[in-house]
């Protein structure tokens, strides 16, 4: 190859005339090397709209089912190939460290074992269809706030035990690519860290694929010599029109060419990067004279998997007095409440946002399942759009209608908004044909438009008086942009609650759908439900003791209303088969098979980050993982803090009994944990038996009081018993010794077995 041809591989380009090739490599036609296209994930294929919307990855992880994770990956793989893609930026395997983090829904767990197993299975599924997986974001990328500039200070043991296992598992599973992160790690850019990229990833783990950066995460040309193989992202101030020239890579374009010609960077480093990329193209048969044919979409098959994941990943958190499943009597008169009951919450927001082929409303599927003899009434309960902001409240003309021509952009509004009374407001906006950002009083702006859903809104408490409001935006190259600005006043919000309470008061059962908007580009500011939803649930539960709450949320949250309710079912962001899955679970046509892969705190003052800004969100762009290995449930255990719901928690519509534990050593250095599991209830149900290990008295480094070491997924009929063996891998019995820079094995650990961290009825000492 010529130097120019080689350079064309190390920075992704942008195709202005092909919507399915927004991220692509041009290839080298004279050598028979075709172009390559990439798309975002990880809950479906984002480049094509519409496409199949799978449940959020956090729902997948909650299934604790490796086989289902592989099927989930295979759906993504087939969809991607059918839509003309060759690479998907998925899965995301970053740890759920911070409960506020905006992208927790896109990843798997706070536990490294769950993350590792889910990642490996999903990658195998994706790549079984010929689509290359690019596992992201390497490494320690666990928050959106200050993600572009923050430096993560993390000790070696914590990095090895908590942050890296998912990536190591992805490499072992054969991921074709790894995407590095925006943040710095111990002072070095993640996308320019010789330690992380060369020494750990490529030398120690023997990774043979290529490393690509996150969008505009490359920070220097010499990152090529530090393990970065490819730059993603082009600096643009507008969407380019068809045929408009596209600038090359900021660091791996002309600057790299100059550096090589001047001898500052050896051409051999470029050769290695290109070899890694082309080798993976060959591995996936993209260079074959007769490459594999692209499959047709399998929407029916994909929907079947999507529904199964939604059902098996749903977590029944509370079920007092067997309120669920609904019976003929309790379903005879239902009050359905909440905006996501009528406009389904399908996916999270940001780069993973999916426009589904179709998605039923839970209100409709509940009505159909309840049947003609039942009464199902609806009230929104929480207004999310409201009415246009009156011009009298604004200091400049309200932006409305077509605000930018095709390709145009700039400031939509720069002035003030005056609110008449102090209270909780919801500022909402809708943008079509482009993106906009709404900023109030200098706070973090919220996005509106393409990847933020039909309507974006932000609840906020505002004091009576004048507030600074600024709105910017940009239209797509091919269409003008329209914009509408609305609000929900405190009076309107209370009236919506009152209407919901009115229909709940006389209903036999009230089902309240509550939601949040997990999103890239921003963390949550609170663990409460946004807006007045906590007030809504409390008010409904006060007049109806049979109040069931269905959560369409992406991560843990507090529940001040919990003890007033009869049942709580978290569906996460359930994908486009979510309404059918939710209804099947409410009526008992399916058993909730999910268990929590993250701890739910009792309140915001009882998390690892309460009162410690150095841990989160950081101070002066310095973020300290000072909790060390004690993140997630390990922190709650170490501190003796009782959470709202423990890791692994989840109820079934039946009951299970654990007996007769036996633990034996195996030749591979692990353990076989054998016990008998029996369904003691009257229904067929699914259980997730979990094995935890305690610290070894022979290891002199920090150790968790209890750590997940193995798990399985079992379905049993009423009265059925099964003798199970769960294998604990040697790695689960090891800890990282930072002084020796190696794993050390510790015998004599206590082994505990049960349905969750909060209930472990069996225990024994390992040999």
TrEMBL record:
The keyword Hydrolase applies. Residues 370-500 form the PA14 domain. SUPFAM superfamilies: (Trans)glycosidases, Beta-D-glucan exohydrolase, C-terminal domain. It comes from the Bacteria. InterPro entries: Cellulose_deg_GH3, Fn3-like, GH, Glyco_hydro_3_C, Glyco_hydro_3_C_sf, Glyco_hydro_3_N, Glyco_hydro_3_N_sf, Ig-like_fold. Keywords: Hydrolase. It holds the Pfam family Glyco_hydro_3. This is Glycoside hydrolase family 3 C-terminal domain-containing protein.
